[in-house]
TrEMBL record:
This is Uncharacterized protein. Pfam families: Steroid_dh, TECR_N. One of its GO terms (cellular component) is membrane. It is a multi-pass membrane protein. The lineage of its organism: Eukaryota, Fungi, Dikarya, Basidiomycota, Agaricomycotina. Its main location: endoplasmic reticulum. One of its GO terms (molecular function) is oxidoreductase activity, acting on the CH-CH group of donors. It comes from Wolfiporia cocos (strain MD-104).
Length: 312
């Protein structure tokens, strides 16, 4: 049998009985995991579910992995751990589904009900029809990937972050983009469209072809990443294959390429704003994760960039 004391790190309203001593019968420190500790705490305090718990060695800030055993963490019989309440959590898969649902709801509202937004009907140009189709296809693809392709290394995130995360999609690629692109400025009879490259089928076709290439490439890299992580694990490996020979995150690169094609097609300042904000955000993510790859894998390819081939 092994016993471990768990003390609160800060205020833990859902576990007012802390500190508490947990006993694991017929197990040694080498057999008990941090996940077992979390499960035992949840059994004692049902509202304090495992995703809300951050377990650390007392006096330290770094969270211990659920898979780590007490022995690996340096905790022996009679040792002490600390638990912090991370607050209400939401499943990452649910987060993505909510984020991508925004544009899928908002674009049809602007496209099909122009009189409500602009005060008059908007006969749609070829450009508007194509952009509408591409945006919806993009976010339908993202929803399907979330359900059937993605495997998440972290199960949940703080619930309040959903509003910040959703704002990027619901506002920038939702309200602002839809409001600009489906406006009378781009309609069938607009002088901004007639006689311009934005009414040229070859130009629109070229941009659409670039978009399709980027979307299919993005999907391919997502499937490749999925295959690196067996279901139910957090296993990590060096990604190889299409796109990965040049950058660590080709999925981000192809995502940016897809939106660049739409921005180029429309010439909308709003579309370019979304590209700029998205590219900056994904670049920050890629650089951080690329650094982690190089730290965790000593044989990580030295010439591989983070997100933009040959550049960054």
């Amino acid at each position: 049998m092994v016993q471990v004391s768990v003390v609160p790190a800060g205020r833990v309203a859902l576990a007012r009985g802390l500190p508490i001593t947990l006993s694991f019968d017929d197990k040694a420190a080498e057999d008990v995991t941090i996940g077992d500790v979390k499960s035992s705490l949840t059994a004692k305090f049902p509202r304090f579910y495992a995703a809300r718990q951050k377990i650390t060695i007392k006096g330290e800030k770094k969270a211990l992995d659920d898979e780590a055993t007490l022995a690996v963490a340096g905790i022996q019989d009679g040792g002490e751990l600390a638990v912090k309440d991370l607050g209400p959590q939401i499943n990452w898969r649910t987060v993505f589904l909510i984020e991508y649902a925004g544009p899928l709801l908002i674009h049809p509202l602007f496209y099909h009900f122009p009189r409500f937004w602009y005060g008059r009907p908007v006969p749609h140009s070829m450009l508007q029809k194509v952009v509408y189709a591409l945006v919806l296809l993009h976010f339908v693809k993202r929803e399907l990937e979330t359900i059937f392709v993605h495997r998440f290394s972290h199960g949940t995130m703080p619930f309040m972050n959903i509003f910040k995360n959703s704002g990027h999609y619901w506002v920038l690629s939702g309200v602002l983009l839809a409001g600009a692109v489906y406006s009378p400025i781009y309609n069938l009879h607009s002088g901004h469209i007639l006689g311009s490259v934005r009414n040229n089928p070859k130009f629109i076709g070229a941009c659409t072809a670039l978009w399709l290439f980027a979307e299919l490439s993005n999907l391919h890299t997502h499937i490749n990443v999925r295959n690196l992580r067996p279901a139910g694990t957090r296993q990590r490996a060096i990604p190889q294959g299409y796109g990965f020979e040049l950058v660590s995150y080709p999925n981000y690169f192809f995502e940016i390429m897809a939106w660049v094609s739409i921005a180029a097609m429309t010439g909308s300042y709003t579309a370019w704003l979304f590209v700029a904000v998205s590219a900056y955000t994904m670049t920050v993510w890629a650089l951080k994760k690329h650094k982690t790859y190089k730290k965790d894998f000593k044989d990580y390819p030295k010439n591989r960039k983070a997100i933009f081939p040959f550049l960054l």
